[in-house]
User: What shape does this take?
Amino acid sequence: MDGVVSYQRFPKIKIREVKDEYLKFELRETDASVANALRRVMISEVPTIAIDLVEIEVNSSVLNDEFIAHRLGLIPLTSDRAMSMRFSRDCDACDGDGQCEYCSVEFQLSVRCDQDQTLDVTSQDLISLDPSVVPVDVAARSTSSGFDATENRGIIIVKLRRGQELRLRAIARKGIGKDHAKWSPAATVTFMYEPDIHINEDMMESLSLEDKRNWVESSPTKVFDIDPSTHQVVVVDPEAYTYDEEVIKKAEAMGKPGLVEIYAKDTDFIFTVESTGAIKSSQLVLNAIQVLKQKLDAVRLTEDTEEADEQFGELGAHMRGG
Amino acid sequence: MNAPDRYERFVVPEGTKKVSYERDTKIINAASFTIEREDHTVGNILRMQLHRDPHVLFAGYKLPHPLQYKIIVRIHTTSQSSPMQAYNQAITDLDKELNHLKDVFERDSFRGALAAVYLGCNKETPNILPSPSGYSSI
Assistant: This one.
């Protein structure tokens, strides 16, 4: 292989807004396949921790065991440990039961209602045996960041009336969204193509102020505006454009085709990432890049495949009359 | 009842190879790579990267059936290259691109955190450079 040639790209990133659970950034100078691979990996292949096995000791609530087990699985847990944890299916420390410290976290829940008022069983009643893996709302309460701590009463699992009881043991494991959506760290991940808007200034100046106003109003989202002093049409927010082509149709209806031309730049993207809270949004992107790298590493040809081909190649040369 | 296990979608069964290579019997410098337990995520980036290689005459991938968890990547190159060489090159280049992406992302999030501290515009704790978590086990 001549290692000198490379068809590599050098994409650029500009982060616009970061919060623990929200991230907006620009990704430039690459193509849609890379943007989409990142999006897909963030949604379905970045690992997190979620409750996977529930042993119910007592359940006299109105919900059946399976229903409660399902609800427990959907509670997002802080998963900063997930990347370095083992999948229980390939953990060799435990004898296949998937209940050792390397691949699982145990939770306990024991609640009984002894009052006339209805008792809410919430994520705050889940007792984790590992302080680094707790329900995200519990973690948010202790750091008092994110949502208002006084408003936060936890995620309701079930409601109990007098005399009802719920007692269980739950095992949380590492997993990926492809297996079950409960392991997905992403609430939403989207990207849009950055629009490239060209206004034909000469043609625009031939319009009356009234016509300009009508044309600007024809866009369902606020992309254009009129400068109050110069009465010129200006692009105020290109990203508000939804590729609806209403302004183009309006220009045609006004007898001014070509008044504006809008293209989608196919190398530039604007990403919006929302996390469930299991992983910080910025960490989610980094984990996605790492996971994608590992996937690519796994599809590299193994040496025995290459050797087999070389032998076959020689044989082929002989057969061709070498 | 008889639904296949969910892990069937991403765990390569024992005894099967992740990637197998099959030369075209009629055309020189053409071959198919069957990649087990992969989908559009890998298939599409590989294909688009292969298109950047001028020695590649044809590159495409298909997911033969939604319940067969594999993709087939077909590559045809000029005589100056070979499908295997093009395939390896594409993976190497993508890997480098992702390394670069990671660097620029970390650099920019660090810069953003510093700006937030200096400007004092962010009252909450600024999101300081996320540490790349260790990924020791596979």
Notes: The two ends of chain B are 31 Å apart (CA to CA). The helical segments of chain B are 40-51, 83-119. Residues 122-138 of chain B have pLDDT under 50 and may be disordered.
